[in-house]
Amino acid sequence: MLPHDLWLHVAQFVPASLLERLISVNSAFYDIAMDCRYRQMSFAFLDSRMMRNVVRLKDPVVAKRVRVLHVYPVFLEQVIDRERHLPRSRRSFRLRLTALANHFIDQKAHHPKHQQQRKLKTAEEIVQAMLEVFAGLPNVTDYHIMWCGLQPTAESPVPFLASVFRYNLRKLALDISLENIAKLLGPRSAPHSIEELDLVIRVDNQPSKNVTEDHVSILINHLAPSISRLRHSLRRLAIQSWEPLDFSPLFLSLSHLPLLSHLTLAIPIESPHLGDPQGLAALLHRQSLTLRSLSLRATQYSGVGLSPDPASLVSWLALALEDRCASCSSKVGGINYEFKLDRMFS
Known about the structure:
Helices cover 40% and strands 17% of the residues. The protein has helices at 4-11, 16-19, 27-38, 48-56, 60-63, 74-84, 88-108, 123-134, 158-162, 178-184, 209-228, 248-253, 277-286, 310-320; strands at 40-43, 68-71, 142-147, 171-177, 196-202, 236-241, 262-268, 293-299, 329-332, 335-341.
């Protein structure tokens, strides 16, 4: 019998689309094909494919193979919208009947092969099902969450989203609104072993005085402590703002990150860019002994101005970098600076 490592070497020459056909060749190809099939999983829309994945991932033999997980909890909205369009009298009767039928199904189906892919009728049911599945994924290393632009719901996705935060998690990518950061990144739910953190920050609520004060509070009391708790592991940090937003409270509130070597910032070309430039200057000074790469990218994804003044951004950068970056790409004080201007406008 050939060693397992040799079969792994052979599998490298087999296209991923063909591996599944070799699943019955031997136990080595079974493991290789299963790892390839379930290595990366996505959950977004509530359809038959998602339901099949929910059933399959309840099997620990399958769940242990997931390494990369993508989640966009729009499926909660789907269920809630379906409930809203159901007449109240029918809803009550149908939900009671469904609960009774599911009870008998669960009692009868003891073996996984006999478990039926039943529809999740309520938001509470889907939260519980996702919590059961996500809590049983022990080997996820790359976790991608998109949680923005969705209507608030009574049933929060936080329980199942946070259940993946474990010590073997190495990369966390969040495309998230500030309002949802406060819900997701609590003192007990935030991960502690992330080496790479990629943040895309959006704003769901329209700016106002009270909303702005709330955003500052979220940056200081939720996001900054969550990042600072990664001081023993974080090596790469990327922050991208979808609209001009004052991030200086965040930069000023962050603790020293002794392992941070790469920092990437996407800066809105419209004023106020990322807020008070002294906030970024303080962060760079604090990380001057560890930071080896600083990548800055000017962007325009939203905003009222179609032709903003680039001079404003240049002035902002000069203050933030303390005139240390005179050219587009240079190396000063041991730090590689890279600046790109992405013209998202005509």
